[in-house]
Amino acid sequence: MLKKIFSLVAGFVALTPLFLVIVSSQASQGIKTLTVCSTGCAFNKIQVAIDAAAAGDTVVVSTGVYREFVRVKKPLALISDGAVTLRPSAESSLPQALVILDDATDMRLSGFTIIGSALAGVLVSGGSALIENNTIIDNALGVLITDGATATVRQNKIEDGISVRNKSVLMATKNTIREGTSDGVAFVNSTGTLKENEISRFEGNGVSLRSTSSATLAQNAITLNKASGIEASDASEVTIEANQINQNDFSGISLLTGKGKIVNNQVNTNEWGVRVGGSAEIRDNRIEKSRFCALWADATAQIIGNMNKLGDNGAELCGPMPASLRQPTAEQTNRTQVNVPGDFKTIQEAVDAVAPDGTVTIGAGIFSGPIGIYKNVTIQGTSGSILDGAKKITLAIAADAKKVSLQNLTVRGGLVGIRIEAGAPETSIMLNQVTVTANELDGIQVRSTAFVSVQKSNLLGNSINCLGLTGCAALSVGRRSFFDGLAQTSGRLQLLDSTIKANEHSGVTLSDAALSTIENSAIEQNKRNGIELVEGAQAQIKNVSFVQNDVGLWAIGKTKLTLNGVKLSEQRADGIRVDGKEAQADIVASESRQNKGHGLLAQTGAQVSVKESKFLSNGQLGLFSKDAGKLSFEKVTVMGNALGGVSFSGKENITLVQSEVVSNKGTGIQVTGAMKIEIKETVISSNESKGADGIALYGSVQGLLQGNRITGNGRNGIVVAEKILADLRNNQISNNILWGVATYTKHCIPDDAQIPDQFNGVVSGSGNDVDGNLKGALHGRFARDFQLKLIKELRPRRPTSQKR
Fold first, then answer.
1. CB-facing half-sphere around the CA of 773: CA atoms within 13 A
2. Neighbours of 93 (CB within 10 A)
3. Which residue has the higher pLDDT, 159 or 765?
4. In this structure, what are the phi and psi dihedrals at residue 668, rounded to the nearest 5 degrees?
């Protein structure tokens, strides 16, 4: 009879495998129960009882607070009888898990409150375990499952999350997993099933999958997490079915890469609904109240599916999401001309109804967004046609749209005015006589490989609710951050005859490796920068004026900037800034004046070529380089700048030829570092202040000064210091306030307390005309024979007062 009972019990192992295996083992082997309590039991320490137990025994712990770390290395059950709390022992100094279930099969942990580990409340390392009906709170990590372990976790309250690593397996059911500084449940190269859990209020994602993880999520409530509800990356695969995924700060579901099946979920009130960067099947979901897009696909994503219920989102479909995933507001007709409000009450109905390549004509009035464009279409407004976004994406161009034209419209009041994520490189989006104004973030976003032409348009007063220090612009082209997706988009911009003015952040931001053309436009009074180039962007800018921005033009990182006929004035910082080892700028026939910072700043390896340009009356220096790359200046005028004309420092090569550095309120040209510089056929004159030299060379610079006119400066014509190697040829050095040429010592310039009283360089040259300097031609601590040689080669016109 007993054998029949054992056989019957074994038949139900599939239903509750771990528990029934334990029961069967106990019955067949006649094993025992060990009790733990403070007094009156066989044991008063849990670990002592575990050590005494045999495989398959049960350790029952009575009510109390036990301050000890527990390790189980054999198949047994550890069960509470009453309110049992485990806390770290007072003598513990190293972080360790409170309960370690260590590489044994059929372990069971039930009914404990586990508090205060600096590592993990429960660690399952290898083997298999059932963890049920526990409260695991206030630990660095709730549960850690690793090293190929298999764990069933059910009906627990767990704070600080679950981490599943190193080819482990998790089956989690009906747990409350709430609050923590990282992800709620994190799979790394592991697998699992999550069903009927509440996962909420984590600083990271509700659920994350990384490396080659896979999981099935069904009937969970995943809410109020600071990142995404569910995020899968790398080569992970996830099935997401019948979940409630609400109020997460980033996406409800974010498939960065890998594969996903997303079916019959409720996805509500997230920043984005579903974002896909890999491949996904999306069917029969209800996605509502997303601040941005309900469904968004990165440029390289692959999507299949059927119709989903989409309501009250910032936009319905963004990126290459198939139009079949949305419910059209009107059936498509064969009409090529439709009118609003004559034929249809809303623009969206008209766009859905018109035949591909047709025209929607809009009358005067205010029409509410959001509006999605998923086909080739022209939207033609009239005077007074206003599209109001009502704090959503007013107009989104996506999916199969390859040729879209917007004409004579005002687009206002959206979260974003116009978001362009349409199609392949041949896609063409034309905006003509469009005003984009008063949008919360960007006025126009280009997040695709499309060619976008903006002509005779105005972008005014956008970014009114952009709280970050960077990232918003009236016109933004290319991916700016993870927030915009993973793939580069290489969008191409043409901006002609337009005005970008008085926006609360930058005027234009350009990123990704695409060439943009900006001509005959005005970029004025934006509260951050006029134009920013980052992340591989290239721009040709011609006949454009920049007035009263922070920095007029800023090229950062791997960028290429070409300017011709550009005028920059009254910026609140620098006129032009070129920053980064791979940043390049070619500047021709341009002018940077009356900016509060420098006229031009080049630094950190930037390479700059300037021809026939002017840097006038700036609040700091006309030209300033710091650790820049190769710099060349030809026929440049640097005049009237408040802190001096030119300052170069670093190690690279610089040329300055046929230029004027005159009437600055500081030294004309100051060079510091270990660079090589050639200054030829340049006028350096009338640079005025007590310490204003014509040319000052410091450090270990190697300088060739040839054919220059260095006159009327406020201190010396040329001053050299430290280990300078200066070759002076055929220069006119005259009428400077102190010496024509001086070495930088206290003996020469006694009023400067910072001067080291030594000069270890070499000054050589010939054919110079050193005349009329008030203190004399030359001064410095030279050896007698060197001084005689120097005087002879410099050939002053009349004797000086120098001692020989």
1. 34
2. 7
3. 159
4. -65, -60
Q: What are phi and psi of 649, to 5 degrees?
A: -140, 145
Contact between residue 757 and residue 745 where contact means Cβ atoms under 8 Å apart: yes
CA distance 51 to 364: 85
Using DSSP's 3-state secondary structure scheme, residue 351 falls into helix
Q: What is the DSSP secondary-structure string of 158-216?
A: ESS-EEEESS-EEEEES-EEEEESS-SEEEES-EEEEES-EEEEESS-SEEEETT-EEE
Which residues, 6 or more positions from 269, have their beta carbon under 8 angstroms from its beta carbon? 246, 247, 288, 289, 290
Residue 649's DSSP bridge partners are 626, 672
Burial 367-397 (b: 16+ CB within 10 A, else e): bbbbbbbbbbbbbbbeeebbbbbebbbbbbb
Q: Are strands 444-446 and 473-477 parallel, antiparallel or unpaired?
A: parallel
Q: pLDDT (tens digit, 9 = 90+) per residue, 720-747?
A: 988 889 999 999 999 999 999 988 765 5
Tell me the whole-structure pTM to 2 decimals. 0.85
**Is there a domain that residue 335 lies in?**
no
Strands (E), 512-620: 515-519, 522-524, 531-533, 538-542, 545-547, 553-556, 560-564, 567-569, 576-579, 584-588, 591-593, 600-603, 607-611, 614-616
The secondary structure of the chain in percent helix, strand, coil, rounded to multiples of 5, reads: 5, 45, 45
Give tens-digit pLDDT for 60-96: 999 999 999 999 999 999 999 999 999 998 766 688 9
Q: Model confidence at 14, in pLDDT bands (50, 70, 90)?
A: very low
Q: Provide the 3-class DSSP secondary structure of residue 719.
A: strand
CB 59 within 8 A of CB 76: yes
Q: For 584-595, write each residue's pLDDT tens digit.
A: 999 999 999 999
Tokens of 447: 């997040």
Q: What is the dihedral of CA 197, 202, 204, 210, to 10 degrees?
A: -30
Backbone φ and ψ for 69, nearest 5 degrees, come out as: -95, 140
Q: How far apart are CA 129 and CA 105, in angstroms?
A: 7
Report how far apart, in Å, the C-alpha atoms of 532 and of each of 449, 455, 480, 515, 604 are. Answer: 19, 20, 11, 14, 17
Residues spanned by the domain of 735 = 667-804
Please, is 289 exposed, middle or buried when counting C-beta atoms within 10 Å of its C-beta (0-12, 13-18, 19+)?
A: middle
In this structure, how many other beta carbons lie within 10 angstroms of the beta carbon of residue 293?
Answer: 30
Q: Mapped to the 3 state alphabet, what secondary structure does 613-668 carry?
A: CEEECCCCEEEEEECCCCEEEECCEEECCCCEEEEEEECCEEEEECCEEECCCCCC
**Cα–Cα distance measured from residue 667 to residue 649, given in angstroms and rounded to the nearest whole number:** 14
**How far apart (Å, rounded) are the C-alpha atoms in residues 19 and 23?**
6
Do residues 663 and 690 lie in contact, with contact meaning Cβ atoms separated by under 8 Å?
no
- SS3 (DSSP) at 93: coil
Q: pLDDT-derived band of residue 11, with 50, 70 and 90 as boundaries? A: very low
Q: What is the tally of structural domains in the chain?
A: 1
Structure tokens at 352: 């859905």
Q: Which residues are CB-contacts of 634 (< 8 A; sequence separation ≥ 6)?
A: 610, 611, 612, 655, 657, 658, 659
Q: At what angle do helices 2-11 and 17-29 cross, to 10 degrees?
A: 160
The confidence score (pLDDT) of residue 669 equals 98
The answer to whether the beta carbons of residues 638 and 615 sit under 8 Å apart is yes
Classify residue 675: in a domain, yes or no: yes
Residue 487: strand, helix, or coil: coil
ω into 425 cis (within 30 of 0): no
For residue 670, the cross-strand partners are 647, 696
CA angle 268, 273, 274 (to 5 degrees): 135
Three-point CA angle 687, 692, 696, nearest 5°:
105
